[in-house]
Amino acid sequence: MGKHKLVRIFVWVVAALPLAVSPALADTFDFPAGFRTQEIATNGTTLHVRVGGTGPAVVLIHGYGDTGDMWAPLAAELMRDHTVIAPDLRGMGLSAVAVDGFTKKNQAEDIAGVMNTLHIERADIVGHDIGNMVAFAFAAAHQDRTTRLVMMDAPVPGIGPWEEILKNPLLWHFRFGGPDMERLVAGRERIYLDRFWNEFSADPAHFPESTRRHYAALYAQPGRMHAGFLQFAAFDQDAIDNRASSAAGRLQMPVLAIGGERSFGPTMAFVMRFAADDVHQVVIANAGHWLMEEQPQATVAAIRKFLGNGPPSRNKE
Predict the structure, then answer these.
(1) What is the DSSP letter of 84?
(2) Is 0.85 surpassed by the pTM of this model?
């Protein structure tokens, strides 16, 4: 396959074309009645965690530009027959301020510690964006604790066409960080975050204004943008860690790879087939990167169908 064709295939592209999409359900951050929040000390930090529902456990891991609040519509669906656990990542959202420990391998141990505190031995693991990198690291380190894995619309450092993906000019933010960059963004967090919400949406209008204000206020709090930059700064070590874990053994649990039609699309499944044996593919129509904000109904339905409430299927799709 030629170099230019590879770049076209693996570009993380968002086209700003008008699309007919269903009304957003994600313009709320209120988890259903019965959820509680808990500050859980784990692996040298403290995570803010939402917990609710009963049944087999599912852990929902957010990414950059969001917090665990993004999962409210999915939590409302899954809590009927799952125990839902939705943390804020290390240093982000309402978790404790943190200045180190941002490799995804280390943050996987943050998640393991949360599960230990809640006396959860095994769980389905769902991740979006940076969260899917943490989810991958958790599944690689804890195959025996991962029932199913859901990976949503982001590359995985070191896995598959990672080096080609890094050449995409839209991903300049992967290398944007450091004291001077933080000074440029300080007080302008909304401007910086709008770039992500606009360029990586199929239609920026489907990332609502109230949602933008909510997350911009959280990321403007002390230490939050610093933590976000450190998430990206860890990618080189993440790639080393992921290559080592994949060399030691492929993922054996069922994996659902979800891509937005106007974002990572089928490439999410293509990437995961480099590291996992049982990969199921879903592409969400009329969606960019922000699946839960842009197409919450379709995204929730795809995850619900995959997780179900019974034992994992071993049938490939």
Answers:
(1) E
(2) yes
CA gap 55, 31 in Å, rounded: 17
Q: In what order do the strands lie in the sheet with 146-152?
A: 36-42, 45-52, 83-87, 57-61, 123-128, 146-152, 255-260, 279-284
Give the mean pLDDT of 274-278: 98
Tens digit of each residue's pLDDT (9 = 90 or more) over 29-84: 889 999 999 999 999 999 999 999 999 999 999 999 999 999 999 999 999 999 99
Q: Which domains does the chain have, with CATH numbers?
A: 3-10+25-307 (3.40.50.1820)
List pLDDT tens digits, range 214-272: 999 999 999 999 999 999 999 999 999 999 999 999 999 999 999 999 999 999 999 99
> In 3D, which of 276, 233, 279 has the Cα closest to residue 259?
279
Measured at the alpha carbon of residue 165, what is the angle toward residues 163 and 168, in degrees to the nearest 5? Answer: 120
Strands 57-61 and 123-128: parallel
Cα 216 → chain centroid: 18
Residue of 97, 107, 117 whose CA lies nearest to 41: 117
